[in-house]
Specification:
By secondary structure, this protein is of the alpha/beta class. The protein has helices at 36-50, 70-80, 106-111; strands spanning 12-20, 55-57, 61-64, 90-97. Helices cover 27% and strands 21% of the residues.
Length: 117
């Protein structure tokens, strides 16, 4: 294939944004988890080992614990998952491992509208 040709790239790429949070902010009163960061490492290893030939894992972006800020996750979407050109064949993957909400958060969200934008 001519590299200047506008045809789709033959190799399909996987762009993986992998987020694992075991330790939340100390003031959140959320207990520390065990395993989210390990899950992220296991998924990365699985993707590297299982895809071959037609697929390529493109430099996965991994965010763990204090690296996994709101802004870093937004940047992961805007700067990393949007990297492929329209001429590339790709699949984006987002894996987010941490605690889920177990209480009504409407009051918390209503009290912090600026922080959540």
């Amino acid at each position: 294939m001519n590299p200047n040709n506008s045809e789709l790239s033959a190799t399909k790429k996987i762009y993986a944004l992998l987020v694992g949070i075991d330790q939340c902010a100390p003031d959140s009163e959320v207990p520390t988890l065990k395993g989210c960061e390990n899950d992220i490492k296991a998924i990365e290893a699985y993707l590297k080992d299982q895809i071959a030939g037609e697929w390529e894992l493109f430099e996965p972006r991994i965010l763990t614990n204090e690296q996994a800020t709101r802004q870093a996750i937004i940047d992961g979407f805007q700067e990393y998952l949007s990297l492929p050109s329209r001429k590339q064949r790709y699949s984006p993957i987002l894996l987010f491992r941490t605690w889920g909400a177990t209480k009504d958060t409407r009051r918390i969200i209503a009290s912090r509208p600026r922080q959540l934008k």
